[in-house]
Task: inverse folding
């Protein structure tokens, strides 16, 4: 449940403007002070903790029931619920590799910029190996000049952090504040055991921060288009994980497609409006994708913060996000929010990635969720009501197995008016999840789809306008793929017609009843002309009928010897059908019975047989005594009185037959014996 802790919060020394999703921040030092590191509060050592002086503020790593909060130079002890933490130190102790043995993991922070000069971050920054600094040349040919640590998509240059120089060093430029991204970077990767600041969650492994700035200016604004470009940059430059501590209520199909087709893991902030993301989605956090983890945030007592967004079908998990101490531009300070919770999960994901050479995002997501610490206080708020347990996750590293099975597609073609519909169902038995389904007209090899070639399939129904050979490509997140070169057939059958006709009782007209059908694309046009014609005659002529009507009846003169119907479907198939209405008089009529006995109020039906079989005659029915029996137009006879009577059946041409019917009296007419 939510716990409103506002009544016991201590007012921070200085406040920074909230960035993204309403997250707030406080600095550890007043502006007029220098950046001298205050003396850390002594704390008992658990195994060999790093020597960074502010680790006693990192309650999310190991919550012993109290932690230090720094107000300027002054350390203040805050009490908390023990063991509400992610077991980071235990995970470090249990990690099976030394830092030097781990593979390098690149984490793209798509946010504000990151302070690449910060003493706790400078050694953790990603460096573009194929770019020469400050020479004004795009050395690696990726379209970005001097992109050494990443790129500023807000200002469209390589200045991934904006500084304001001071007498004592530097701080964030207030006109383009990069504290938010810098704070996230510190949570993930601040250098451990360097005697200053803090240690990042993943600083026990080889991790590099790629700074991709998409928010800037005094209001820290940004755009989805910049985010898409940043994701594409990260993918192209080899990043493994993207941390997205921002969101929007506006859905973007292009953003979803870019994330879905990326090979990277995305860790996203759920939002800080205290809203239910089920009913008020925040994107990209509310996207349900196998390579995306959405994160809400808890306080140090294990409760979902009152500002954290939630959602039992949209928010995957929670993580520590209150009173989080980390790097700021030129200094250190505090921030609150799901923006801070997400990088805690990102850091754990980096540890998992660093151990395995071949691992896919869904495995990392599943491992983090399956080893989480359940918290009853989160029941009813999240898909997985708990927080990550880094120690349990590291112990489960050996359980990860590779996905080597190729995904596959099932294709089924149907038609809907002008469109050819291809139903495409993608399956991945290996478990990594479907990353990409694309198609193109014509035959192509698999490597054609290695980039953004082909058209992405956004759902399982593809609408085509022409038939022919198409190539379909399906790939999972483990890199397995399958290609299909298949011929999509068109609807080549014209609509069909079923017709019958009958003469009127007085031979004054002929009724022609017909229905048109098309099993594929459907009937688009129905026309008719009196006479015999080919279908070209209907180009500018013919009486139009409603194709949506299931059955039609035309009344034509007995003089009409032919009627031509023109039918066309939505795929351009057409045909002309000629009906030759002809009056064929009956020569005889026979009944199923010649006489019958009925009880009072009993019924039965007369069934006449008319000869010849092709006769167009109908019949009429008449009772010789309406007080004994009645008969309706369909031949249903009902006994209503006692005695005898005949039913006379007469064809339109005057041929007759009769059935004698005897009606017995009711039982009450007979005397009792």
Result:
């Amino acid at each position: 449940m939510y716990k409103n802790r506002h009544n016991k919060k201590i007012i921070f020394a200085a406040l920074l403007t909230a960035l993204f999703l309403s997250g707030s921040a406080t600095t550890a030092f007043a502006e007029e002070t220098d950046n001298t590191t205050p003396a850390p509060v002594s704390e008992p050592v658990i195994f060999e903790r790093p020597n960074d002086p502010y680790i006693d503020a990192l309650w999310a790593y190991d919550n012993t029931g109290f932690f230090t909060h720094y107000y300027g130079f002054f350390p203040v002890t805050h009490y908390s619920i023990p063991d509400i933490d992610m077991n980071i130190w235990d995970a470090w102790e249990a990690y099976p590799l030394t830092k030097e043995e781990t593979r390098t993991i690149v984490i793209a922070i798509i946010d504000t910029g990151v302070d690449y000069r910060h003493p706790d971050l400078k050694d953790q920054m990603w460096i573009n190996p194929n770019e020469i600094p400050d020479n004004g040349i795009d050395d690696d040919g990726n379209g970005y000049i001097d992109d050494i640590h990443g790129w500023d998509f807000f200002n469209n240059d390589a200045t991934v952090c904006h500084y304001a120089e001071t007498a004592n060093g530097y701080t964030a430029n207030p006109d383009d504040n990069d504290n938010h991204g810098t704070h996230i970077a510190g949570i993930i990767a601040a250098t451990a055991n360097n005697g200053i600041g803090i240690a990042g969650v993943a600083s026990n492994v080889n991790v590099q921060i790629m700074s991709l700035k998409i928010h800037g200016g005094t209001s820290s604004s940004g755009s989805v288009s910049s985010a898409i470009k940043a994701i594409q940059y990260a993918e192209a430059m080899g990043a493994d994980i993207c941390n997205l501590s921002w969101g929007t209520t506006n859905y973007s199909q292009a953003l979803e497609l870019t994330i879905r087709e990326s090979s990277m893991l995305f860790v996203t902030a759920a939002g800080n409006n205290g809203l239910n993301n089920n009913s008020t989605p925040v994107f990209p956090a509310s996207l349900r994708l196998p390579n995306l983890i959405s994160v809400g945030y808890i306080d140090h007592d294990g409760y979902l913060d009152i500002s954290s967004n939630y959602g039992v079908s949209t928010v995957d998990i929670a993580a520590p996000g209150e009173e989080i101490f980390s790097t700021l531009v030129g200094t250190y300070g505090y921030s609150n929010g799901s923006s801070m919770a997400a990088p805690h999960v990102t850091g754990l994901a980096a540890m998992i990635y660093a151990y395995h050479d071949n691992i896919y995002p869904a495995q990392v997501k599943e491992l983090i969720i399956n080893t989480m610490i359940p918290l009853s206080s989160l029941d009813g708020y999240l898909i997985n009501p708990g927080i990550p347990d880094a120690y349990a996750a590291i112990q489960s590293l050996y359980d990860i197995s590779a996905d080597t099975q190729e995904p596959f597609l099932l294709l089924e073609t149907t038609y809907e008016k002008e469109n050819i519909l291809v139903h495409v169902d993608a399956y991945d038995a290996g478990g990594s999840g479907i990353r990409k389904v694309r198609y193109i007209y014509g035959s192509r090899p698999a490597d054609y789809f290695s980039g953004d070639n082909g058209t992405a399939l956004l759902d399982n129904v593809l609408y085509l306008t022409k038939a022919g050979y198409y190539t379909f490509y399906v790939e999972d997140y483990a890199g397995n793929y399958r290609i299909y070169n298949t011929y999509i057939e068109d609807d080549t059958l014209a609509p069909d017609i079923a017709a019958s006709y009958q003469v009127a009782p007085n031979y004054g007209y002929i009724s022609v009843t017909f229905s048109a059908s098309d099993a594929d694309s459907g009937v688009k046009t129905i026309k008719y002309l009196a006479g015999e014609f080919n279908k070209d005659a209907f180009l500018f002529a013919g009486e139009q009928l409603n194709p949506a009507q299931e059955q039609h009846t035309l009344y034509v003169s007995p003089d009409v010897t032919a009627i031509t119907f023109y039918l066309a479907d939505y795929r351009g198939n057409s045909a002309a059908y000629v009906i030759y209405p002809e009056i064929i008089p009956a020569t005889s009529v026979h009944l199923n019975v010649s006489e019958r006995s009925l009880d009072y109020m009993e019924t039965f039906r007369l069934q006449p047989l008319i000869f010849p079989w092709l006769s167009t005659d109908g019949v009429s029915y008449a009772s010789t005594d309406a007080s004994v029996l009645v008969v309706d137009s369909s031949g249903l006879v009902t006994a209503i009185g006692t005695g005898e009577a005949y039913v006379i059946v007469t064809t339109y041409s005057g041929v007759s037959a009769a059935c004698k019917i005897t009606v017995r009296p009711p039982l009450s007419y007979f005397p009792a014996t």
